[in-house]
Amino acid sequence: MISIVFDFWLKRGRLHFLYVNHGRSADTREGSHKYIELEFEGAKTNNDENGSSVGAYYFYKNIPAKEVNFDQINVVFKDKSSTVESDYSIHDLATVDSLQPIAMKFVSIYNTDSVVFLLDDRLKNDSTLPKVLSILHTVDSAMGKFTEITFAGFKFGKADSGEPVLRCWIRTETDKTFILFKITITLVGRKISGLAV
Fold first, then answer.
1. Contact at 8 Å (CB) between 75 and 87?
2. Domains of the chain with bracketed CATH
């Protein structure tokens, strides 16, 4: 499991060492947590939101369920000048695991008619959707087909309406370049409510 997380950063040239620790924490406001900590030394901290969330996710995804005897994954990025810390509950990571396939599916089929089944009704009726899809078709024809599609991070948030959402980053690579999709999924309806490239 650890080697998969390690390989993800090593492949991108962003990691020197990975340390795995465990412990307990207690806080009068947040209660107590049994956690596992992933410390990435030598990792760039300027994009910590994507990096820390995807590190926690891939660790969670690749640990056998019977070995999950903690309720939180803490991620620490250290480079020469700074340290960035984030924590992710196992409950939130399970939610991400159930929703991220929707984002991955969209990236795989965005240029087909089947994509409408993944979209929230508001997005289907949004006047900017045809423009975004047109740009994607242009990129697709100019840059070539995707050779790799990778889940690259997440963040929970709220839509303008106040509805809880999950924002996912999906990195796609072609022979010429890469594209980062930003896809918003509603937690309740489990549909895509926003996208950007």
1. yes
2. 2-90 (no CATH), 94-196 (3.10.450.590)
